[in-house]
From TrEMBL:
This is 3-oxoacyl-ACP reductase FabG. It comes from Paenibacillus mangrovi. Pfam families: adh_short (PF00106). The gene is fabG. Belongs to the short-chain dehydrogenases/reductases (SDR) family. Keywords: Oxidoreductase. Gene3D superfamilies: NAD(P)-binding Rossmann-like Domain. GO terms for molecular function: 3-oxoacyl-[acyl-carrier-protein] reductase (NADPH) activity. InterPro entries: NAD(P)-bd_dom_sf (IPR036291), Sc_DH/Rdtase_CS (IPR020904), SDR (IPR050259), SDR_fam (IPR002347). The keyword Oxidoreductase applies. The keyword ATP-binding does not apply.
Length: 254
């Protein structure tokens, strides 16, 4: 039971997770599968990895579909929507998780790299949201959850480009939440701190240890800890949480 009397069984609820072939995205997909929801796993090029995630989700008895699309390409996203609609799997919940990182001094960022990271992290999120939100508006219920970063809140040296995209996601979230609230659709962002995924692959063991020492919790987060928060925000009973940027970061940034 959701706000305004909206009802839909968990087994009839569909979640689309972009960039779900690994890391936090894969953990999110599996968390929703455990709850018995229909799960759409989007991936870019990692076909086998996406299939591995799909198999894990199906072990929980969930209905699962994998879809590939370049999120920088509006036409590919429209084709993805058509495929989901043909399977009766237009999403009630959209998790905009796909993104790429960049580490390096701003002085060394090329225009091409700037455009690439902006296109994946911001344009892709915009296009996916614009394409899939009309269905949520039409049923007067939906959840849009955007994956941001603690660096979108505090900024990080040597990650100016990445921080800029995540700051943009936070602003996008707050503004769109006000726009869609009258339609029964909430928009929130989750801005994790340091999570033990491949995205920290540029750090060696000593650098990771130094990073852990900076965090009051004394450790990195696990992907499952992030997916649990995302799942909570997607529940019908979380309908009064809207336009928020929530940062699970172990007390690192407060």
């Amino acid at each position: 039971m959701g706000e305004g009397g909206f009802t839909k069984a968990l087994s009839d609820t569909t979640v689309l997770v972009t960039g779900a072939s690994r890391g936090i995205g894969a953990a999110i997909a599996e968390r929703f599968a455990q709850a018995g929801m229909n799960v759409v796993i989007h991936y870019g090029a990692s076909h086998e990895a996406a299939n591995d995630v799909a198999r894990r989700c199906m072990q929980h008895g969930a209905k699962v579909l994998t879809v590939s699309a370049d999120l920088k390409d509006h036409q590919q996203i429209l084709r993805m929507r058509d495929k989901l609609e043909s399977h009766g799997l237009l999403p009630d919940i959209l998790i905009n998780n796909a993104g790429i990182s960049h580490y390096g001094m701003l002085a060394d960022v090329t225009e091409e790299k700037w455009d690439e990271v902006m296109s994946v992290n911001l344009k892709g999120l915009f296009l996916c949201t614009q394409v899939f939100m009309p269905y949520m508006i039409s049923q007067r219920y939906g959840r849009i959850i955007n994956m941001s970063s603690v660096w979108g809140i505090s900024g990080a040296s040597c990650e100016v480009l990445y921080s800029t995209t995540k700051g943009g996601i936070n602003a996008f979230t707050k503004a769109l939440a006000k726009e869609l609230a009258p339609s029964g659709v909430t928009v929130n962002a989750v801005a994790p701190g340091a999570v033990n995924t491949e995205m920290l692959g540029h750090l060696d063991a000593d650098e990771k240890r130094m990073l852990e020492e900076e965090i009051p919790a004394g450790r990195l987060a696990t992907p499952d800890e992030i997916s649990s928060l995302v799942y909570f925000l997607a529940l019908p009973e979380s309908g009064y949480i809207n336009g928020q940027v929530i940062s699970p970061n172990g007390g690192w940034v407060t």
